[in-house]
Design goal:
The chain contains 7 helices and 4 strands, in the order αβαβαβαβααα. By secondary structure, it is of the alpha/beta class. Helix 2 links the parallel strand 1 (28-32) and strand 2.
């Protein structure tokens, strides 16, 4: 009597191996603009040794990276460059928002500073702090690795469905027309509530 192999068993094992490989070989694309960038550099140093997690290959070309780390404040003039770098990264790709400035604008509540990069990029993990310690960034990479291991398929069909940002909705669509204030320039997502 011939034993017929279970196809579902084979596919689930293949998915597990693909997710394990993806999680264990993250190549960061650093987008560091301020004091969080110093903490990002310290994370890659010999004291903290980011290489233990398979993320030591920091490339400065987006076509070789699959994890973007946005560290520090991002101003409106940087957004097109940030989005272009994100679009040049091949799928599957992930994003970490490092620090209070990248996550929520921090103390810079001005029209020129982006109040969270999740308005322009799909952020997977947020790292709180001003600036966050290297241990916090390492913890966020470990959390991202857990997320990658739990989700995903070998063929990567789930990444084709990611067409919009996974962050909060744009303020412009949430506010009534009479409450909107648009700053000068072509930045339609930069809005403020009137007092």
């Amino acid at each position: 009597m011939a034993v017929r192999p279970n196809e579902n068993f084979l596919i689930s094992k293949l998915d597990y191996v693909a997710n394990f490989v993806r999680a264990s070989s993250l190549w960061p694309m650093p987008f560091a603009t301020a004091c969080c960038g110093i903490e990002l550099m310290a994370t890659a140093s010999s004291r903290y040794d980011l290489a233990r997690f398979g993320a030591e290959v920091m490339r400065f070309t987006p076509r070789q990276c699959d994890m973007m780390i946005v560290a520090g404040r991002v101003v409106m003039k940087m957004v097109p460059v940030l989005q272009r770098i994100w679009l040049q990264m091949p799928e599957p790709k992930w994003c970490i928002s490092m620090g209070a400035c990248a996550s929520s604008g921090g103390v810079f509540d001005t029209y020129a500073v982006v109040q969270g990069v999740d308005r322009f990029l799909p952020v997977d993990v947020y790292v709180p702090g001003c600036p966050p310690r290297p241990e916090q960034l390492i913890r966020s990479i470990m959390d991202l690795q857990d997320k990658i291991r739990q989700t995903g398929t070998a063929m990567g069909t789930e990444f084709a469905e990611r067409t919009t940002a996974e962050g909060p909705k744009q303020l412009l669509s949430d506010l009534p027309q009479d409450k909107e204030i648009i700053v000068p320039g072509d930045y339609t997502t930069a809005t403020r509530l009137r007092n």
